[in-house]
Design a protein that fits this description.
mainly beta; Immunoglobulin-like; 3 domains; five-stranded mixed beta sheet; globular; binds CU-O-CU linkage; binds copper (II) ion
Amino acid sequence: GSLQMYVDPLPQMPKIRGYGFQQGRVVPVNLTIGMFQKKWKFHRDLPETPVFVYGQCADSATFPGPTIVARHDVPLAVTWENHLPDRHILPWDPTVPTAIPNHGGVPTVVHLHGSAHPPQSDGSAFAWFTAGFRETGPAWTQATYSYPNVQPPGNLWYHDHALGLTRANLLAGLLGTYVIEKPEVYAPMDLPCNGDDLHLVIADRSFNADGSLYMNSTGAAPLVHPQWQPEYFGEVVTVNGKAWPFLAVHRRRYRLRILNASNARYFNVSLSDGTPFHVVGSDASYLTAPVTVPSLLISPAEIFDVVVDSFASPTAEVEMLNSAPHPFPTGAAPGPLNGKVMKFVVTPNGPRDPPDNSTVPDREVPYAGVASPGPASETRHIDPVTETPRSGTTELWHVINLTGDNHPLHIHLGMFQAVKMQQLLDLQAFAGCMAQVNDAVRCGVDRHAVGPVVTVPEHEKTWKNVVKMPPGFVTTVVVAFKLVDTDQPYPFDATAEPGYVYHCHILDHEDNAMIRPLKLLP
Ligand code: C2O
Ligand code: CU
């Protein structure tokens, strides 16, 4: 039978401060965060589920993990420790290139998604390690990662990145949110704060009757892959580790930092009473001005930071709905289960409720680097040449999507944004040529990329970490390999080994090699 919706309250994950105080001054700290196997209750009526989760100790570990709150310009060191058992709780799949330890254990490595940090702290898929660092991958160099937090403030997340195991390790629960704050600039905007500032980590899952996570490992088709499936879709929608939770709210403003942490499912969320979202940021940056939208299309790994104004409608119960087909955009429409996300139960303000002094700011913080298809130091058609941009520069990439699916592109280190999305005409001829020659210029991309232009949504016109690539389109993105708020180069050596990667953030695609190295030149 299916689970009853809206019976578990929405939790907020524990917060860990990524800085300390000494004599009233903010100082750097070192954190140790572990990965533990434990049991997690996803729903009142579902037996406990074995999960792999992050926490400062097993007891406090949560699905998703704790929220790390870092300060702009205050470096943070994190020692990530693997305390996982010898065997994975999900099927191990040797049919894709994967980390295989000789002595058992679960290979893991942590990537801080959206962050500008040295390559040795990037969480290379080849820098994996098992429990107690008993075994390490070929790119492993250090147990403690350093995050300089020099980029603009915004919303990031951390998650596993082990070779061939990313989809299983995230499915198991190895993910959490990370915030970079800059209070002197952003506090005056009077966004909803403290108890009115909420994280919503959305992730679809499937469960067996005994409560364990279900991951299909029967293969896409006998001749395609014996175990690997092209996309993981679960019919249960979880938010902050609860299946279809509810949240009691008052008639006041709330800030919702929404992360789609699903492996493959896109969400197109809206509120059932028509309350719009005032988008103030996306991924690791703020917008230059808020944008009001009735719904938000959120790809895997994408983040939107929104203000919801008071739930001002007379409706006492407001559902968050999902209308995105899976796979996106041409797959099945969501059904009665995965078409719902959570419910807000509006309760009247009591006399003791504090007044709401928050606002939706009318102006936010501009960035030094204006994104337009203007001067770029390098223009690339993305085909199988390893990319080698220069540190401190901006590039234009034309990303060609010849598949039928939308793919969420993620670039490590570089922040980027779409400036043009143009449909390819005579797609079959172009795709046929690309299949043989694999060279966009020789296949005449400019002759084909002459179809209708789709405008980039206003609320995505900021420095992003994930950009959605529509099928049959050439998407032109501006990629900045420098600090986008100051126009300065990174204050660390971004050219060191093992470099970075860019990839599709549908984890099943990423694990099956839809990922490429990215090596920065001085
Ligand atoms: Cu969010 Cu390479 O990952
Ligand atoms: Cu993909």
